Amino acid sequence: MLNQNQTPLLDALKANAARPHAPFYTPGHKQGKGVSQPLADLLGTKIFRADLTELADLDNLFAPQGVIQEAQQLAAEAFGASQTWFLVNGSTCGIEAAILATCGTGDKIILPRNVHSSAIAGLILSGAIPIFLNPEYDPVLDIAHSITPNAVESALQQHPDAKAVLTVYPTYYGVCGDLSAIASITHQYNIPLLVDEAHGAHFAFHPELPTPALAAGADLTVQSIHKVLGAMTQASMLHVQGNRIDCDRISKALQLVQSTSPSYLLLASLDAARQQMALYGKMLMSRTLQLADEARTKISQIPGLSVLQILSKPSEAGLGGSPGFVALDKTRLTVTVSGLGLTGFEADEILDEKFAVTAEFASLQHLTFIISLGNTPADIEQLVQGFTALAKEYRRTNLAVKRHIWQDLFTTQCHALCCSPREAFFAVSEILPLIQTSKRICTEIVCPYPPGIPVLMPGEVITKPVLDYLQQIQAMGGFISGCNDTSLKTLKVVKI
């Protein structure tokens, strides 16, 4: 057992920041003496004293032998991994590296269609061929959940030459599928299970939270420590266990997708966040769960509102209890607002502007909130008061939102890939008005963000339902990202 009280990287950074010396190395601001006054007014100068480069005492992220190696070993033990890598380019680079390390050009990888755009980037970089699976769909809430074990088994039977399976656990809504069963099926083919666990870094620290991906049998998992724990934005970790993953390939892949000038502020924040959770994680998560339960109970009692939850009766549609929804992260609160006659986008704008309550993201019928160790009872009170006022003051009589829109999208899109994402991405392209792009091959990633799930990706045939969906999202206040023209007047397609 390692001493989880230690923070070797944080301590080394603190010592070097305080050491009097004449700096003739990057960064150019020289420990804050050269920063602009407006920036110093916002952040102060102390933080810049610790914004250092790869000095001798601070180790090297790509060949760690000192304090970074020690900090990563402590993290591996705390999160239940055999080896851990610190990431300064977010979980995005971790997902890309996972695919690069397991798949080459033309190799097949099985993954859900509702993956994050980072997985699509991994396909483009690696040249891998995606075998997309439909996620389980909730027709009541119009939400896509996890892929099911049966879907994975069927895909592996049809594609026994696949090199890996990748899944999302939990989804952006906090929904967890049957990862243990998926791991068991995947391992029967002696291939690794890769998990995008960006929103599940806290699972290892409380028994009332879903089973962590590694404990459920994942071979590799990527976690955004900054999303739900105490690290700085972009600070993430990649964990591996077992022998199905070549760790040397992971290290080499990370050298391709991470900055060669990593921020030691981000790295030190990972060290500190690990220590915080290793020592006080259960207490912090108990308090967080208590706040989340209070919010869920009070909001569910407001007329016109309902909250996403999992019940013990699988027959109750929209409430979990299915292979694609076996557990729910209770710190993730999704509120359905369509009963108020409002879209999620409208409710989001009202809550933010009128009641100073800001959600993580909005969708057509829902608002989703992340309740974390940083929230307070006052935050929960403000959230409940905001929804109470929203229900009283802004309720309308009807809402014209197309139902089953996710189902329409996935059934039309999952079988529309006609070339690899890499081939389409690098193909000669042309820009056409949106109305002229139906039945053409897309060359760019197009997704409403958040949650950053691509509706179109390179290599897919553009269909009318997809165009209608994107325009509906935009008309209702959503933001389209990833593509060259975010106004969505044009799209880039493969030139004929």
How would you portray this structure in words?
With 496 residues, the protein is α+β, with helices and mostly antiparallel strands. 37% of the residues lie in helices and 14% in strands. The strands form six sheets. A seven-stranded mixed β-sheet has the order 1-10-9-8-6-2-3, with helices on both faces. The protein has a four-stranded antiparallel β-sheet with strand order 11-13-15-14. The protein has a two-stranded antiparallel ribbon with strand order 4-5. The radius of gyration is 23 Å and the shape is globular. Residues 312-318 have low confidence and may be disordered.
Summarize the structure.
The chain has 16 helices and 19 strands.
Q: What are its keywords?
A:
37% helix; 19 strands; seven-stranded mixed beta sheet; globular; four-stranded antiparallel beta sheet; 16 helices
Major β-sheet, in short?
7 strands, mixed
Q: What percentage of amino acids are in beta strands?
A: 5-15%
The portion of residues assigned to helices is: 25-40%
Distance between the termini: 61 Å
Total number of helices: 16
Oligomer: single chain
Content-based structural category: alpha+beta
- What's the pLDDT, averaged over the residues? 92
Give the helices and strands, then pairings:
Elements: H1 8-18, H2 37-43, H3 46-49, H4 67-79, E1 83-87, H5 90-102, E2 108-112, H6 117-126, E3 129-133, E4 137-138, E5 143-144, H7 149-158, E6 164-168, E7 175-176, H8 179-188, E8 193-196, E9 220-223, H9 225-228, E10 236-240, H10 247-257, H11 264-300, E11 306-307, E12 327-328, E13 332-336, H12 344-355, E14 361-362, E15 366-370, H13 377-393, H14 405-413, H15 421-425, E16 429-433, E17 447-448, H16 464-475, E18 480-481, E19 490-494
Parallel strand pairs: 2-3, 2-6, 6-8, 8-9
Antiparallel strand pairs: 1-10, 4-5, 7-12, 9-10, 11-13, 13-15, 14-15, 16-19, 17-18
Helix pairs in contact: 1-11, 4-11, 5-6, 5-10, 7-8, 11-13, 12-13
